[in-house]
Every structure is written in C-alpha cells, then in structure tokens.
Design brief:
Length: about 300
C-alpha cells in the first residue's frame, strides 16, 4: 500500500526526501497525543515549549470487564473484583461518532475489601459509556518530556494544552539522513529481450516440382523466433543468386507464413536471409544488437530440375 504525501512549496529533491523521512519518524516516535487543563489566565508555557508531563498509568492489568451501567461516579461492571489501595481503572473516551480511536483515560478507584461489581471513581472527569471495556489494575505515575502542539481556550479562563512526545531522537535520526541522488525516471530499465523481436526461423524451404509443383519453383516458410514476447506483423525476406552482391527484398506478412519466389530457375544456387523490419522510430539501445538477434545468416538453397 502506498500513500501520497504533499509538501507544498518544496521543490528541492533532497529537502523533500529529508522532510518525508522525518514525517515517518514522527509516526513511529509520536504515536499518541496528550492533553491537560490549566486554570487561570497566567500561562507561561506556549506553543512549541518543552514541558514535563506527569500521568497516571496502569502498571499492569489485573482484570478487564464491560460497563453495565453508570450513575454519577459509580460504575457497574459485569465482573466481580476486589479493589486494594492504589488501584485505578482505564478506559477510552471518544469525541464523537466519527472518532474511532479515542483517547485513553486513567482514573483512581476507591478501595474495596470485599468482592464487588461497583466501582467508585475518584475525582471529576469523563466517565465511560455503557458497553465500554474497562481495565483495572495497580496505578503508577510516569513522567514524560512533551512539546506543546496547541492551546485551546475553555470556560472560566482555563486553557487546554495539547501535547505530543518531545522525542529528541527524531531530530537525531533526521540529521543523520542522507538523501540519495534524485532520478526522475520511474521503474526499472526495460528488458530489451522482451521488446526486441527474436530473429525469425526458417520452417521449410521447398524447391522444384516435388516441393512446389513447379520445376523452377522456390517456396519459403517462416515463423517467429523463440525467446521474445514482442509482437511482429511482418518479416523481411532477402534473396539473391549465390556470389552476387545485391539482395532483393520481400515483405512477408506473418499471417502468410511465407512466400513463393519466382525469380530463379532450376540448378540456380540461391542465398536467403530473413529478419524482422527495423522501424525508423524504433528506440535503438546504446550498444548495437547482435546480428543474430534480428537477422538469420544467409541460407543457400540448391535444387536440380527434375524431368
């Protein structure tokens, strides 16, 4: 699967490569976002600042259950559980119906010495919905270096800070990248053996009355060569008397399979050769092709008049 990435305003190939690689590292090292609410109008941290965040997490999961009902801060689950001191509950909150990922929330739970299906969640905040999966286990606090990505204003002069992991390794890996030499060609080099037709092959050469019903007849049958998938529509069949320097050329359609030559008589020695036509607009490779790839070496036919 491929994905198109647009970098408006970027035209330098090396810069585009580095920026794209940096985006890949951000997806790996910054998979999550964090948020916190800061009360009051006096706010020192602003967008882009490095801050330390302290979050409650579950060190391990003791039990997973589904929510049956919610009443205030009291949550009923479908499993019996004993809640020691220092335990919490983890669930996901979704912004709307289109949000399929949501955000993870960890809340402390009041301790209970006896087994119960009721959880009393401490503090204020979003509650799970009926049917949601909750994870219960011991809580611990972890600290993480963060960068403030955005700030949203809320009621009563509060500010919601949206943060992502600082991940300094992203800068280290991006600086170590070396852009390869840019080439505008797409794909690999074309294999000429697949696009250049192979030399045609002589199937048969019939002469005289026995082969052509004509004492002076000469009939040549051809077929496409092996080892190439290139389509050929016609051949070029050259013929001449042995020892002469001028070839006479015939164009033979592939559908005809061959041709009859009437320019000779019995007892003549005739040289034949065949090849596929070379078009003027054909792309010629840097090195000249081997003659055997396009042309059959001369073939000498000799027949004797039969009475």
């Amino acid at each position: 699967m491929t994905e198109s990435i647009d970098l408006p305003g970027k035209t330098d190939p090396a810069e585009i490569y580095i920026e794209t690689r940096r985006g890949m590292y951000e997806l790996v090292h910054r998979p999550d976002s964090f948020s916190a609410t800061q009360p009051g109008t006096a706010r020192v941290a602003t967008r882009g600042d490095l801050v330390m965040g302290s979050f409650d997490v579950l060190s391990r999961t003791q039990l997973a259950a589904r929510v049956k009902s919610v009443m205030g801060r009291l949550v009923e689950i479908d499993e019996l559980v004993t809640i020691p001191d220092g335990y919490g509950v983890r669930y996901r909150i979704f912004a709307d119906a289109e949000d399929i990922v949501g955000s993870s929330v960890v809340r402390a739970v009041a301790a209970s010495e006896d087994e119960t299906t009721a959880l009393l969640i401490s503090g204020a905040g979003d509650m799970p919905e009926v049917g949601d999966v909750v994870h219960i286990g011991p809580m611990e606090t972890t600290s993480l270096a963060l960068r403030i990505r955005g700030i949203e204003a809320e009621d009563d002069f509060r500010s919601r800070l949206i943060m992502i992991a600082a991940a300094p390794e992203i800068d280290v890996l991006s600086d170590a990248e070396t852009a390869p030499e840019w080439d505008g060609r797409v794909g690999a080099e074309v294999d000429l053996s697949a696009v250049v037709p192979a030399a045609p092959m002589f199937v048969s050469i019939a002469t005289g009355a026995a082969g052509t019903d004509n004492p002076d007849g000469l009939k040549v049958l051809l077929r496409p060569g092996l080892g190439s998938t290139a389509a050929v529509s016609s051949y070029e069949l050259d013929h001449r008397l042995a020892g002469t320097g001028v070839w006479t050329r015939l164009t033979v359609p592939v559908a005809a399979s061959g041709a009859s030559i009437t320019a000779y008589a019995a007892d003549d020695q005739v040289e034949l050769r065949a090849r596929w036509p070379i078009r003027r607009r054909a792309i010629i490779p840097p090195s000249p092709p081997s003659p055997s790839a396009a042309t059959i070496p001369p073939f000498r036919a000799l027949w004797t008049r039969t009475r």
